[in-house]
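Internal ticket #5521
Category: modeling
Description: The requester needs a full-assembly model to guide mutagenesis choices. All entity lines are attached below as received. Residue total reported by intake: 518.
Assigned to: D.W.
Attached entities:
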Amino acid sequence: MSGQSTKRGTLAIVGIGPGPQAWITPQASDALAHASDIIGYGPYLARLQPNPLQVLHASDNRVEMDRASLALHLAGQGRHVALVSGGDPGIFAMAGALFEALAQSPHLQENIDISVLPGISAMLAAAARLGAPLGHDFCVLSLSDNLKPWALIERRLTAAAEGDFAIVLYNPASKARPQSIFDAFALMRKIKSPATPVAFAKAIGRSNESIVRTTLAQADPGCVDMSTLVLIGSSQSRWIGGPNGADWLLTPRSYGAVT
Amino acid sequence: MSGQSTKRGTLAIVGIGPGPQAWITPQASDALAHASDIIGYGPYLARLQPNPLQVLHASDNRVEMDRASLALHLAGQGRHVALVSGGDPGIFAMAGALFEALAQSPHLQENIDISVLPGISAMLAAAARLGAPLGHDFCVLSLSDNLKPWALIERRLTAAAEGDFAIVLYNPASKARPQSIFDAFALMRKIKSPATPVAFAKAIGRSNESIVRTTLAQADPGCVDMSTLVLIGSSQSRWIGGPNGADWLLTPRSYGAVT
């Protein structure tokens, strides 16, 4: 496909953050404004204000490889493609799919300039709302076993808990996979203190944003869905008084010294 | 200090990203434009374009608690304070210090509206330059033992390696602490494959930006300094051909399935 066109195409993998315009970087806005083609999951494209000359290619969820292939194909024809990703493209998002496609067909990049434009990831947005839950060492895991065995997820959850990291869980549950988060919490409860702070941060930055502040002992994993990010503290994390009962979550930089 | 002023102050902990204006969110720019007082590490303030009515409070590195106290004090007087953080405020940065100060003196927030404004973190910027190194489960650690014992760092490095996470190391070395990164690599080499991809991403987004692409066996930890972020792959991470020898780093979403 590529190599036959004389005009060089561009492919920007653009992070648009969790929702609000105020969280989209000028670099990302500029790439979206100047693209000839914008490719992405339908609800993400619905957030944008394209101009009449731009071609929008909306697709369903869970067809990341189709989107990546289309982006490479159009850019190979000399077009200027913005491949849209929610949050940051590098965190469980479209950059992974794009470079997997390139790994399979490296020649597709011959006439293309590829760039990744970072965005505010869901975990940074959730952490900002909560205070400083990721203020020290932390682990980030997806609970989805679509592409990896559940045994690996258990191994990683165990390692994260035994290392006393703060933990962020992406994709904690779906309709097809409601049990994962219960299994993950059962494992956490064997290793970590019942008093460990837990937060369920749902749809941060969107109109239905909500946060549940609780502890490992009291947390109800049943209230989690695919738009929820789960944050589990280290042994040092703690709730500190905030406004209107919305306590702040702090994971201090020092270990064992703060009472 | 607070409680005596009738005018309510504001305190925004503002992430300005790793360097370029194009990576500063509109929300952060707006907060900086409307602040009466801007507090931060001198080199970060030097990047901004303040207006003549704004008071700049520049300070040295490693006085985070002084900055946090000053921010709370000024906001308690009814002023509108932007407390500037490089990268994202929540990742080894000023949000931790601010909420530690609040934990010690909760009454200081009585007449203040506090918010954390997320930013592009150094790790997201480095990952974007490299491709998709954090495309799957990963751990983030600081190698500084200023505020935690080295034994804990070893425990966490071991857990991260045994969980086969991709790993990001912040604060890998300083003039006072040149040995940490050598010790960390010695530990990694006992557990992880010699072929594991390693990247040293230095000053990403600034004029002296550079990236070293190597492997765990061949990496020279001696080229690392405080402006370097170290990325170490999982067993699945690999270099794939990129333009002009600048290979992309991919940690695929699937485990064990990709050849």
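Resolution: model delivered.
Comment from assignee: Residues 64-76 of chain A form the longest helix (13 residues).
Ticket closed.
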